[in-house]
Amino acid sequence: MVKILKNSRGDSSVMPILLILIVSFFAITTILVKQIDGNLIAMQKSRYEKAISMAINTSLATVELSDDSNLEAISMGYTVHNQMMLDKTKLAKVFEDVLYRNVQAKSVYQKNQFNQYIPLMGVLQNDRISFLAYCGKDLENPNSTTLTPWQDYPLYVHDEADGKRIYLTLGDDYFTLIDESIPWTTESNRNYDSLSNLNMTEKQKNELLYKVVKDDINSFANTYKESHNHYTFTLRNFDKNSFLASINDVTVFCVVEGIPIKTILSNEPDKSFYMAKFGGASLKRADQ
After folding, report:
1. Could you write out the DSSP letters of every residue in the chain?
2. How far apart are CA 152 and CA 157, in angstroms?
3. Region 198-227 average pLDDT
4. Which residues are 141's β-sheet partners?
5. Is the pLDDT of residue 36 over 90?
6. Burial of 84 by CB count in 10 Å (0-12 exposed, 13-18 middle, 19+ buried)?
7. Distance, CA of 180 to CA of 238 (rounded, Å)
8. Confidence grade of residue 76 (pLDDT, cut at 50, 70, 90)
9. Contact 214/252 with Cβ under 8 angstroms?
């Protein structure tokens, strides 16, 4: 009887080892699956980032001036308030064509699906930032869920002393409005002055532009973006160094959110890819 009990106890000693092997197997499998998930997301992010970079660079290489450009200033050597404006419609068309081709969005359905993950395209130039929302909502036409019209916003900050608006430009000057009731776009209503009179350096101005642009991106995306799936858009990966390096006479950028990729461990698209891609261009006369 004693011998039987000893054999039984000896046989049962295999169970803890077997349990350890099973737990180890599932642990290793889980780690491998997570690594595969991470690699899939990283590959998708890399693919989109390269596609956006190429689209921005190509659109910048084919920019055309709009009718709003100050042609007289250009003929004088482009010295008056950096008033050189792009044809944003043509720029967006080139950008979209290259981007769709790189992400292999060929049909209208595929393009519309992809557009749900582009909150906006933006152009920073001269005295304003302009936004175009993809699959956005036009507040004046709530039934519209296509591209919203380009919308221009001034680059202003508040003077801490009197609370008045100071309108920044990409040049070395700023302006205030003579009459606050008249639209800021009215050139004759502007009073220009040098940034040096505000004791503001170019570096300080660019720091302010970084904050203004970041706040405007978040505000515009949450106001005009149609498809957020009940969550608020917050731009996380806003690379300050890339932005400051891109600020020149013109900066074109695109913001991408939640890449639509369903991984092994989740049926929900990964939403960790809130990124902004920038590209800068300096437009000058051919003889400069």
Report:
1. -HHHHHHHHHHHTHHHHHHHHHHHHHHHHHHHHHHHHHHHHHHHHHHHHHHHHHHHHHHHHT--B-TTS-HHHHHTTS-STT---B-HHHHHHHHHHHHHHHTT--SHHHHHHHHTT--EEEEEETTEEEEE-TTB-BTTBTT--SPPPPEEEE-EEE-TTT--EEEE-SSSEEEEES-TTS-TT-GGGEEEEEGGGGT--HHHHHHHHHHHHHHHHHHHHHHHBS--TT------B--HHHHHHH-SSEEEEEEE-S-----TT-SSPP----EEEEEEE----TT-
2. 16
3. 84
4. 138
5. no
6. buried
7. 32
8. low
9. no
d(CA 91, CA 62): 7
**Mean pLDDT rounded to a whole number for the chain:** 76
CB 276 within 8 A of CB 254: yes
Q: Return the pLDDT at 11.
A: 53
Placement of tokens 């006479």 in the chain: 249
Query: Cα–Cα distance between 257 and 196 in angstroms, integer?
Result: 39
Quick one: pLDDT band at residue 6, thresholds 50, 70, 90?
A: very low
Query: Between β-strands 250-256 and 173-177, what pairing exists: parallel, antiparallel or unpaired?
Result: unpaired
Return d(Cα 255, Cα 274) in angstroms, integer.
7
pLDDT of the residue at 263: 63
Q: Where are the domains of the chain?
A: 2-152+213-281
pLDDT in tens, 142-185: 555 555 678 899 999 988 777 789 999 888 889 999 998 999 99
Confidence category of residue 4, pLDDT binned at 50, 70, 90: very low
Within 13 Å, how many C-alpha atoms sit on residue 73's CB side?
Answer: 13
